[in-house]
Amino acid sequence: MTTKPKVALIGAGAMGAALLKGWIAKDALDAGGSAVFDPAISAAAAAEIARAAGLALNPAIEARFDVVVLAIKPQMLGEASRYAPMAKSALVLSVLAGKGIASISSVLGTKRVVRAMPNLPAMMGAGAAGLCSPPEISAEDRRVAQALMEAVGVALFVDDEAAIDAVTAISGSGPAYFFLMAEALEDAARSLGLSGETARALARQTLIGAGAVLEEDARGVAVLRRAVASPGGTTEAALGVLDGDGEKLRKLMKAAAQAAFARARALAS
To answer: Tens digits of per-residue pLDDT, 139-195?
Structure first.
């Protein structure tokens, strides 16, 4: 596909709006030939974005598109069968959590499906998504799907669908791990006598700043950590508690990721 794709976005909630905002900002779709489908479109987050860009809202289902993007709630997958006529002649890109390619193919009557697992920062254009597809999916379909997901962040194909559960455990659930770290750092700041307002501001900005360094500095994370932790200094003392000889933090993070991975696998079964 050498031209920009005509996209049918099914589901106009928070994730649908995030994707649409990214596509429009990156000029990644044919806005005039694209549409948003949602029964509650008048109150949907993506409605104003779609109108401003010239996308159609709930046109006839018989319309033809290059890509059909499923961004509805997972429990609503069965209701998506009404879009099967348009899906049969298009690439289907699903961002539904816990719904495998086989289930999506069965509902929409097509095997031309790419599954993606985005995360919350996609709403800010800073997402991290894993994608997978059956072997028969063409290289061009993979390219189109990856380009659409890259409009809201980093998007990488994994080797097989089973690896999507690992993506869920790392980047899908990962933002919550960092939010918890911010909470814990804020609590620690209060315990050291800082006011609630100061503790909150310092904890949040410390994590934001660390993320900015990771984005801009090409050095490995271990190098960056050592750059902060001077021998015999305050940071080294703290890291000794968090992850000293017993590697407590690393073991805890592996256990947490394993728990998320197991739960993702159970939900998909």
So the answer is: 999 999 999 999 999 999 999 998 999 999 999 999 999 999 999 999 999 999 999
CA dist 268 and 131 (Å) reads 16
List, in order of start, the domains of the chain with CATH numbers: 7-160 (3.40.50.720), 174-268 (1.10.3730.10)
CA distance 244 to 248: 7
Q: List the beta strands (DSSP E) in the chain.
A: 7-10, 35-37, 56-57, 67-70, 91-94, 113-117, 127-132, 153-157
Q: Which residues contact 182 (CB under 8 A, 6 or more apart)?
A: 203, 204, 207
How do residues 13-38 score in pLDDT, each as one tens digit? 888 999 999 999 999 999 999 999 99
Phi, psi of 224 (to 5 degrees): -65, -40
DSSP state letters, 209-263 = HHHHHHHH--S-HHHHHHHH--TTSHHHHHHHHHHSTT-HHHHHHHHHHHHHHHH
Query: How far apart (Å, rounded) are the C-alpha atoms in residues 34 and 54?
Result: 8
218 φ/ψ angles, rounded to the nearest 5 degrees = -80, -10
> What is the pLDDT at residue 133?
96
pTM of the predicted structure, to 2 decimals: 0.87
* Measured distance CA(193)–CA(254) in Å, rounded: 32
Reading the block at residue 48, the tokens are 């104003």
* Helix 234-243 and helix 248-268, axial crossing angle in degrees, nearest 10: 50
State both tokens at 166: 């690992």
Backbone φ and ψ of 151, nearest 5°: -70, -15
